[in-house]
Design brief:
The protein has 527 residues and is an all-alpha fold. The protein contains 23 helices and no strands. Helix 8 runs parallel beside helix 12 and helix 10 crosses helix 11. The longest helix has 35 residues. It starts with a helix and ends in a 12-residue tail after the last helix.
Length: 527
């Protein structure tokens, strides 16, 4: 079975990274795109390493250097868990790939393990990119023994295993429950979004626990942080103690817990795996079909309806592109419940939460619009869109309107909560409503333009389009930049009235949205 797992894993990784296409393609444009994508990844990796190095350096300066490994382990575990929950069900139970692989002379266990290891390899690389810079800075500042590096590298290899297993178990549970419902996709979407809401709400709750005392009792930061790490995620503390104090017993405890949970998860899931994959491919049918009167609708309205049906038919599409909208509501609810004074005390910037709230709200909505992969999601059926008697403008407008309609309920709910929390008046009130709306419009337009420049139609797994394509990465990066710049201006230039900056941001984004092309470029039209 080991050889089967190795071969299946190699195929999965080649498909994930598109290595064969990069090596053998004769299309120079494709190769250029791959090189540009690699360059973008390098920039993001350098930024991540700089952030991690700065965090480790700051902890050492504050006398909390011994907590660096535990903090970094906790950071990796949280990121791995959150991102794996969004894709675990799709990767583990992807029906089309399962039907192709199960026809081969391989066992069900080999298929299951290879899919799990595919996620593990990518998460392990992320974990090492976080741990190694932090370890390097800690080594320069604290001068630890050689065991620190040995335990750190060994622990880093196993670090994603436990959060990945827990997230996969949650994804398997959600997929297993939803597979028994008639509306499988809606059930999986609702269950996944509820889990994400619980995770995000829990993170807000943990950030408020005892942290208001940190401003007055800086000397107590280390004990408070260590106690909170022990309470929230003990394995991070086990690895930290093994690295800092050279406790090999703690290392064995960490490795045993990680590997033990992984093996236990596989043994529990294995008997149900084939049944879940089969149920996901089943469809319920109703009898008593009767032909009714056919009604004609306007072209744009019909295409918007088609976009929404396609959107809600994909669990991974919804759960990944709706996180930004959820964050809008959770942020607004947190401000209302905790109060703006508490939020400002937590971030150490008095008077900035209300001032930056509209831009922050808009940035959350702009980071991952559904239009960033709406064209690529058409896949190999994209040629059918070209046969419809509709113009390229109608296609763009339908996808934009679908994105706006999805974001609209979250936008209205978050605005109402902020109105209650801040009670703005005059031009500030207008800015609170206008800025997020302009961000949503700009993101919808920019997302589809970027996706038209970097389309991917030859995919077999929706996860590759939603989470791993160049279009989604560039759109997310553009959304972050569009919000980070005005927030920096709001923080640094507090003498300038907030409504002036709101007007400037809205004008720039609205102008960019109008300047961007409103039709499909020739590169994605299949003649």
């Amino acid at each position: 079975m080991g050889r089967q797992i190795r071969l299946l894993l190699g195929i999965s990784l080649c498909n994930l990274l598109r290595l064969n296409e990069f090596r053998h393609t004769k299309d120079k444009k494709k190769k250029t795109r791959y090189w540009l994508m690699g360059l973008l990844w390098c920039v993001l990796i350098v930024m991540l390493m700089g952030y991690v190095g700065g965090l480790s350096w700051g902890l050492s300066l504050m006398g909390m250097g011994y907590l660096t490994p535990a903090v970094l382990s906790m950071l990796v575990s949280v990121v791995v868990f959150l991102f794996t929950v969004l894709k675990a069900g799709t990767v583990l139970f992807e029906r089309n790939a399962y039907e192709k692989q199960i026809a081969l002379p391989v066992t069900v266990r080999a298929v299951l393990v290879s899919r799990f290891l595919t996620m593990y390899v990518s998460d392990m690389v992320l974990g090492m990119l976080v741990m190694l810079p932090g370890m390097a800075v800690y080594g320069v500042m604290e001068k630890p023994d050689i065991s620190f590096y040995l335990y750190g590298i060994l622990g880093g290899l196993f670090l994603p295993l436990l959060p990945l297993t827990l997230a996969s178990a949650a994804g398997a549970l959600i997929t297993g429950l939803s597979s028994r419902w008639r509306q499988k996709n809606i059930a999986a979407i609702v269950l996944t979004m509820l889990l994400i809401c619980l995770i995000l709400a829990g993170s807000f709750g943990m950030s408020g626990m005892e942290e208001s005392r940190l401003v007055d009792y800086i000397q107590q930061m280390a004990p408070l942080m260590e106690a909170q790490l022990r309470r929230v995620y003990p394995p991070a503390v086990w690895l930290g103690e093994a690295m800092v104090n050279g406790k090999i017993s703690m290392l064995f405890l960490f490795l045993g817990a990680s590997a033990g949970c992984f093996v236990l998860f596989l043994e529990i899931l294995h008997p149900f795996y084939e049944g879940i994959c089969s149920l996901l491919g089943a469809h319920g049918a109703k009898g008593g079909y009767r032909m009714k009167e056919l009604n004609a609708r306007p072209v744009l309205r019909s295409m918007i309806s088609r976009e929404l049906r396609r959107y809600f038919s994909s669990v991974v599409y919804v759960t990944n592109t709706m996180v930004g909208n959820l964050l809008m509501v959770i942020f607004a609810a947190a401000v209302l419940i905790m109060g703006k004074e508490t939020m400002e005390e937590l971030i150490g910037m008095p008077g900035i939460v209300e001032r930056a709230a509209p831009v922050l709200l808009g940035m959350m909505a702009a980071m991952m619009p559904m239009t960033s992969c709406a064209v690529s999601m058409e896949g190999k059926q994209w040629w059918m869109m070209q046969t419809f008697p509709v113009s390229g403008k109608d296609i763009v407008r339908s996808k934009m309107w679908a994105d706006i309609l999805v974001a609209l309920p979250f936008y209205l709910a978050s605005e109402v909560l902020l109105m209650i929390a801040f009670k703005p008046a005059g031009l500030g009130l207008l800015g609170f409503w206008a800025v997020p709306a302009v961000y949503i419009l700009f993101a919808a337009k920019a997302g589809i333009v970027i996706n038209c420049r970097f389309p991917v139609f030859d995919w077999e797994d929706e996860t590759k389009v939603v989470k791993q394509s160049a279009a989604t990465m560039i759109t997310t990066f553009a959304g972050m930049i569009s919000g980070a710049v005005p927030i920096g201006v709001l923080v640094c230039f507090r003498d300038i009235p907030a409504y002036v900056i709101y007007a400037a941001v809205s004008g720039v984004l609205l102008g960019l949205a109008l300047l961007l092309p409103s039709s499909l470029p020739r590169g994605v039209e299949m003649v």
